[in-house]
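Weekly sync, protein design subgroup
Attendees: M.S., D.O., the rotation student, P.L. (late)

Item 1: inverse folding check
M.S. brought a backbone from last month's batch and wanted to see whether the design step gives back something sensible before we order anything. D.O. pointed out we never logged the input encoding, so this time it goes straight into the notes. Structure tokens as presented (61 positions):
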């Protein structure tokens, strides 16, 4: 979990999933869905699925 610096209220959770099916199955469990009710009022969640990308002379993928 990463928190924005200073007065930021941004939290970023980075997780590595075996595949999209595993992520979908975990997301749809009753246990996970019940945690959403505990988010503070006004909270917004933006699930994003990404893939590592190499950038020559900058970073490896």
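Designed sequence read out in the meeting:
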């Amino acid at each position: 979990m990463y928190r924005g610096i200073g007065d930021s209220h941004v939290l970023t959770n980075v997780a590595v999933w075996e595949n999209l099916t595993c992520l979908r199955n975990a997301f749809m469990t009753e246990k996970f869905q019940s945690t959403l009710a505990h988010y503070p009022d006004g909270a917004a969640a933006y699930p994003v699925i990404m893939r590592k990308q190499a950038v020559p002379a900058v970073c490896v993928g």
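Discussion: The longest helix spans residues 20-27. Residues 1-61 form one domain.
Action: P.L. to compare against the previous round before Friday.
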